[in-house]
Specification:
With 522 residues, this protein is of the alpha+beta class. The chain is built from 12 helices and 16 strands. The protein is globular. Bound molecules: heme C (2 copies).
């Protein structure tokens, strides 16, 4: 059957035009009528796309549900997290469900459906999921929260917001600098493990990063989680006045840190030459080197796969001189996991193991015809691994230099001969770890760092409060290190084909990651 107008009777065409007009009017004039979608059609779409996470009856028990933190929403409860209704309303607005479905929820497994479903279909889905609970029965769509009293951002307002952030104890969960470094162990009402948002990375927010969205969050709290509603009067304990809520919004908006964002196509750590290398990870000399940020993804290739990471990014700098190379790796980690620390053990999920970092480089630098490296290398492509962990309270900073030839095959190398050392410190939700070693290896199981040459480099990271140990961890793809000599007529050597292969792979991978960001970054 043709669906074009050509073969249709004029009556049918007129009927369709009328229908189209009616639909358009309904959608433009009255969003609340538009929201009364078709439950039956919504059910059909749900059975195609939603059930494998949210479950056949919407009870969050689909076959994929077990692999997710946070778990999918249980629609039979009728409780939703991101609510823009008036704080007095018990239910969310239809528009909140519509937004979550259309745009998805970054940092969780909830995909965005805006490219798959048309808006009317999304309203049908809204109607269907509302029908899975009696919470919405005989309830009108509630009014939107009032945004009256909005205060434009200014240094003064941000400062007042910082004070309100203290007064309301936002820092107990979100950390003094907003990086989500909680001092409390948090759970969803369902019992699922829950980490607070890192407010310096708004691209990991589940909902919108606008003053209005954050105002709604602060006013309504995040239902089904321990984040409470702060709407109230100054005099009420744990509440913020309307004015202070707007100041705190401006403060949260000001916390965004673009330096911890990956930049498209930036796949090289550029080492700078200096006479004297920094003495430790907090040495101001590190400011001379520019940082490159790389995404961490969960390790899902080798056995003991891992789907629920917390850390999502490393920032890397390198400096070198005639004899040594030094790396500074920084990452936001909500927990300082040092075994022996009772406060850390109290908020850990599972046994508390050390936080850890590894830097990997190939033992033999690739030549033109060589394939890219993956994982821990193999028998003919050994990888050298500089490893640091937080040790324990009694003995901080565990270090090892290893050579790996594939999964599980690793041997200790002579760290002293390589002049290898590593130290780390944790402040306000961020680890800074410096690793240093000689440029030239003594053994043929170790990497010699040639200057003026692109050297493959990769990173692995463990969050010891999140059950990350052994092959359960996050890692980056392979990137590049370039130690660029400052003087002389140095020529930068590209390893030809290998370089192109890697860069090509990298770009594909980056594409995958930017989609994966939806599901992996929290
Ligand atoms: C791959 C798994 C997956 C699929 C498929 C999926 N969801 Fe979700 N969904 C989730 C997860 C996980 C959450 C919870 C995210 C959170 O709590 O941060 C969620 C949350 C939601 C929410 C809650 C929003 C809120 O504010 O609380 C709605 C509504 C929703 N999903 C609707 C749908 C609909 C409709 C479909 C099908 C078109 C769908 N989901 C398909 C994983 C999925
Ligand atoms: C008791 C702990 C707790 C307190 C106190 C708390 N939060 Fe949260 N907050 C959380 C948790 C947990 C999440 C993540 C919830 C989730 O993803 O399900 C969160 C998420 C957020 C988000 C992210 C919203 C999004 O779209 O992803 C913002 C913004 C936020 N909080 C701001 C604040 C501000 C401002 C305060 C103080 C006025 C505050 N929070 C107090 C625990 C808390």
């Amino acid at each position: 059957m043709s669906d074009t107008g050509k073969n249709m009777k004029p009556g049918i065409i007129a009927g369709r035009i009328l229908l189209l007009l009616a639909v358009t009017i309904v959608f433009t004039l009255s969003p609340s009528i538009a929201a009364t979608g078709n439950v039956e059609n919504g059910g059909k779409l749900y059975a195609k796309k939603c059930w494998w996470c949210h479950g056949k009856e919407g009870e969050a028990d689909g076959p994929a549900a077990d692999f997710m933190i946070p778990p999918p929403r249980d629609f039979s409860e009728g409780v939703y997290k991101f609510k823009t209704a008036d704080p007095k309303a018990e239910i969310v607005r239809d528009e909140d469900l519509f937004r979550a479905i259309k745009h998805g929820m970054p940092g969780s497994a909830m995909p965005s459906w805006g490219e798959i479903f048309k808006d009317p279909e999304i309203w049908d889905l809204v109607a269907f999921i509302k029908s899975l609970t009696d919470m919405f029965e005989d309830m009108d769509n509630p009014a939107e929260i009032s945004y009256a009293g909005k205060i434009p951002s200014s240094a003064e307002s941000i400062e007042k917001g910082r004070k309100a952030f203290e007064a309301a104890k936002c820092f107990e969960c979100h950390g003094q600098a907003g990086k989500g470094n909680t001092i409390k162990k948090l759970k969803e009402d369902s019992g699922a493990k829950l980490w607070p948002r890192n407010l310096t990375k708004p691209w990991t927010f589940r909902s919108d990063y606008t003053p209005e969205a954050i105002f709604a969050r602060v006013s309504n709290g995040i239902p089904s989680t321990p984040m409470p509603s702060f709407a109230g009067e100054k005099t009420e304990k744990g509440k913020l006045s309307l004015e202070d809520r707007w100041h705190v919004v401006n403060y949260v908006m000001s916390l965004k840190d673009d330096s911890s964002k990956t930049k498209d196509g930036d796949i090289v750590v550029r080492g700078i030459q200096m006479v004297e290398l920094p003495k430790d990870e907090n040495d101001p000399a590190w400011d001379k080197a520019s940082a490159t940020a790389f995404f961490l993804v969960p390790q899902i290739i080798e056995k003991d796969r891992f789907f629920t990471p917390t850390n999502n990014l490393v920032k890397v700098r390198a400096l070198f001189n005639d004899s040594e190379v030094a790396f500074l790796v920084e990452w936001d980690d909500r927990t300082k996991s040092v075994p022996g620390d009772d406060a850390a053990a109290a908020i850990a999920w599972g046994d508390l193991t050390p936080d850890a970092l590894a830097i990997e480089t190939p033992v033999v630098l690739p030549t033109a015809s060589e394939k890219p490296y993956f994982g821990h290398g193999d028998a003919s492509h050994p990888v050298s691994m500089m490893y640091w962990n937080s040790g324990s309270v009694e003995s901080p900073n565990g270090t090892m230099l290893l050579t790996t030839t594939g999964t599980g095959n690793r041997e200790k190398s002579d760290a002293t001969a390589a002049g290898f050392s590593a130290t780390g410190s944790y402040k306000d939700g961020t680890w800074r770890v410096m690793m240093k070693r000689k440029l030239t290896a003594n053994a043929d199981t170790d990497t010699s760092f040639e200057t003026g040459r692109y050297i493959p480099i990769a990173f692995a990271n463990w969050d010891g409060s999140n059950g990350e140990v052994g092959s359960k961890h996050t890692l980056t793809s392979w990137y590049w290190l370039l130690l660029k000599p400052e003087t002389g007529n140095a020529v930068v050597v590209l390893p030809g084909l290998a370089f192109l292969l890697l860069v090509g792979g990298q770009l594909l991978f980056a594409g995958f990651l930017s989609k994966g960001r939806q599901s992996n970054k929290s």
